[in-house]
Amino acid sequence: MKTVLVTGAYGFIGKNLVATLEELSNVKIIKYGxxxxxxxxxxxxxxxxFIYHLAGVNRSENILDFKxxxxxxTEDLVNILKLTGRKIPILFSSSVQAELDNPYGISKxxxxxxxxxYGKENNTNLYIYRLPNxxxxxxxxxxxxxxxxxxYNIANNLPIQISNDxxxxxxxxxxxxxxxFIAALNKCENRNHDNTFCSIxxxxxxxxxxxxxxxxxxxxxxxxxxxxxxxxxxxKFLYSTYLSYLPENNxxxxxxxxxxxxxxxxxxxxxxxxxxxxISQTKPGITRGNHWHHTKVEKFLVVQGEAxxxxxxxxxxxxxxxxVSDKELEVLDIPTGYTxxxxxxxxxxxxxLFWANEFFDSERSDTYFxxx
Length: 372
Prior knowledge:
Number of domains: 2
Largest sheet: 6 strands, antiparallel
Low-confidence stretches: none
CATH superfamily of the largest domain: NAD(P)-binding Rossmann-like Domain
CATH architecture of the largest domain: 3-Layer(aba) Sandwich
Radius of gyration: 29 Å
Mean pLDDT: 93
Shape: elongated
Number of helices: 8
Order of helices and strands: EHEHEHEHEEHEHEHHEEEEEEEEEEE
Strand order of the largest sheet: 9-10-11-18-13-16
Structural class: alpha/beta
Distance between the termini: 67 Å
CATH topology of the largest domain: Rossmann fold
């Protein structure tokens, strides 16, 4: 069992790290936050085997806050360790801005120097990560990152500001950061060539214009039902991040239900890469379909009720029948060149889930009516 201290445990990275560490059976966590005192810190450090030093100040109108929150706190931590003589490995979340000449960057660089000097003098293992823009759930808008701010604003119908469309961001996803931090706890960290700093293996690059377009497309997907290509990890992670900033009274959205004497039909979700999914309700005794396709293929899945699905190759008169029901879920593939139909043979409304490999296009529907 390892006992770890997490400073900044209630911040963006801290909350995500703690949530994952809590799922591990061999780790005990001590949390340090703004409400804790220097005496608390001294007490905590006497009990732990590893330190995640994540506490810090990212933004402030008072320049002294950077020094106090980043450099001075690190000095306090190191001074306590010197007094106790304990050689505890330290992981420090620094920033790529440590290479820049601004108050935040300078405070992070100074904190790095404090740790590097301490590590050299005391032969202590250090894991210093100069993180770029980190994005993911539980960030603080107008504080942690532009991704956090824009996700929050767009999800809450607030405007965003783009200073330079072509400015490129270097991003890392919070889950990758947490995975790397846990790897460091197990001495499997990803070190840079000079062996001084560690880094997150996977990074993403995107311009502000590309980022804005992606985030707005997530918002519009509720209307268009069209989703982005989630084979792209950046889009997948950004979508997960965006949804985490939805207002709690806006998790749901309504679908358009097309009703007629047969029942209703509604589209659920579309993707240019994946096709589309739609759902129908069919009343007892009613038949849908009696059409065929040249190229479009579909899958039928009855999730409520009983039905007979019929097929006929349009080149002959032989009819094939499949009886299906919700008693044993069974997917039917609809091959090209076969006219097909589905009939509700039960007493309940029939609910069927459909998948098609392409969007429905009224001008080129690839749908030709012919009785089975």
